[in-house]
Amino acid sequence: MIRIVGLVAAALLATTSCASAQPNLILTGEGVEAFREAGALPPLMQRALDAATRRVEASIQAGPIVPEPVDPGGGYSHERHKENYKIIHDAGLLFQLTGERRYLEHAETYLLAYADMYGDLPLHPERRNQAPGRLFWQSLNEAVWLVYSIQGYDAIRAELSDASRDRIEAALFRPMAEFLSTESPQTFQRIHNHGTWAAAAVGMTGYALDDPALVERALFGLELDGEAGFLAQLDQLFSPDGYYTEGPYYQRYALMPFVLFGQAVQNNEPERGIFEHRDGILLEAILSTIHQSYAGRFFPINDAIREKGLDTVEVVYGVAAAYSLTGDTGLLSIADQQGATVLTGDGLAVATDLDAGMASPFAFDTRLLRDGPDGNQGGLAILRMGAGELAQTLVAKHTGQGMGHGHFDKLSLILYDGGQEILTDYGAARFLNVPSKDGGRYLPENSSWARQTIAHNTVVLNETSHHGGDWRRAQESWPSIALFEQRDGVNVVSASISDAYPDATLTRTTFQLQSENTASPLILDVFDVVADEPSQIDLPTYFAGQLTDFDIAFERFGSQQTALGAGNGYQHLWVEAQSEIAADRARFTWLTENRFYTYHALVSEPFEARIVRTGANDPDFNLRTQQGILLRVPSAESARFISVFEPHGRYDPAQEITVASESGIDEIRSVEGETATLIQIVFNSGQRLSVGLAHDLHAGAHTINADGHRYEWTGAYNIFGE
Fold it and tell me: Any idea where the Alginate lyase domain is (predicted)?
């Protein structure tokens, strides 16, 4: 249930229309009044105000700088125009909050300079195959420019002369709104984050210019039929749980236009009930974005820049909006972690209540975020066990493709423990806004490596990526989640997919298990592959840390290495070491920061092992170094990989102390029954943790005899402590 509090409640009680008093977008008249009544500002808000003041004061000293658009992302003109929209935004808001006209005049000067330039601009010279802009190499950046700048203009519009107002609107804002909508239908009508930004930009311009036609266009699309536009974006891009189909990195990016335009609609036309749309999907989107993080950083699935996290400006705006809607004091702890808030009434409420000591821990928990508009296209399973935001967290990516930004990594895993990423995901091959790295665009290796299946912790058949590496084909497919459950000491998820490869079914069942024999929970992972024909089956596992021990004999390739394969990402992996056909099991231990991790592997078929590392066939040194362990079944119609990931021990280099660097597990066993499998984890102490897992998750009764014990249960699985 959404509870409307604070300034949003005041907006709901007001009778507003497109002609409401300005400012009327995100900072409203009520927000300005709250600032004026606040007296001394709380520290978080004072910090935001000081940062805006520094930016604008420095700009006033330097004078307006509006270069000709010539550079791609990261280049001088690109970055200058980005800085300028922040200056226009901040200057307008500072005028409202301080009443100092020199801030108004500075914003006005910039806007008039852009009005003089914009009408004569051709398409950007650095445009590639993206939808081009005029100020920027892609129209996406143009929409972002407008979203920010229109807020600054909204804050000064009522105080401008008629001549300045007419010039800015006729030569800048209206042409830009048309360029982003009627002149760019391929973007504006697209159900995609680029379309969301464009819709928000045009709609917010409509409210600021008192133009209902622009607002309707933004909400319902160019044809006004609801097949495109902001509401269609809300309906089609989010699942009922608030999961954004492209994954958390793009959910974070898309969150900004959704939140800002949503607030603009609420503040101008509360009767539309935008925050009640789809049972409050905007709020669910904000909260699910926060849940898709660990230690302040987003899960790096799909085309993700790994360094992005909760401190990004989009989530700062989201936290302020969500707190206004719910009063959830857990959000204040996120704001405290961000160390920032926004210059709005909602931001002031966050800063005030945080300063009053009202924050409580945010409720990170185990949850399944379903994918797809109807929640029936797989999902992202987040398994958490332990206390606080650094609780051990397993991310099972059983989602849909994620459109063109999706990777071919069905049923992949990421593991976090002790504040570190243990089993890693590569994310994107991209250096955002670094001119020397192709202007900050996605690099060629994003397609040849990062998106390919071998770059992820999941099974690869015959050195070919899932769905043949065709995202449009993959977009029509998703895993089926047969089991997701949380109970005391156990989290479990199981999913399968039957068309990642022709005539093959992949099934992965993953347990997070509390054990009195280990300091942190154990991960038990069972990956089944069933194919119609003999196939080469590879299971890579990428880890963060330094290998310290292993129990199989390797041939090392220290002086001359070769690539693992010729294509589909295999060409980018050096083979550093290789084993002969192993028995049925292997063990590897590595050290991550101050904790050891042992990977126990039990494989149903004879297998080989390789130690691999990224960097092969990388002429421009675009790939980050990533080490992995690859288990290969050379040829089989079916195979089962049973993996146990065991945290243990402690390493303290300052005190020169090493404790329990060796695994506490003696053996992993698997016993087959008629309807189920029993997997036994035998500890050095002699104690056992046994997991009964039904074939096909059959819910009936199961019995297995092993080592003189009789194991009986009913249902998909059961845990036996011995």
Answer: 86-270
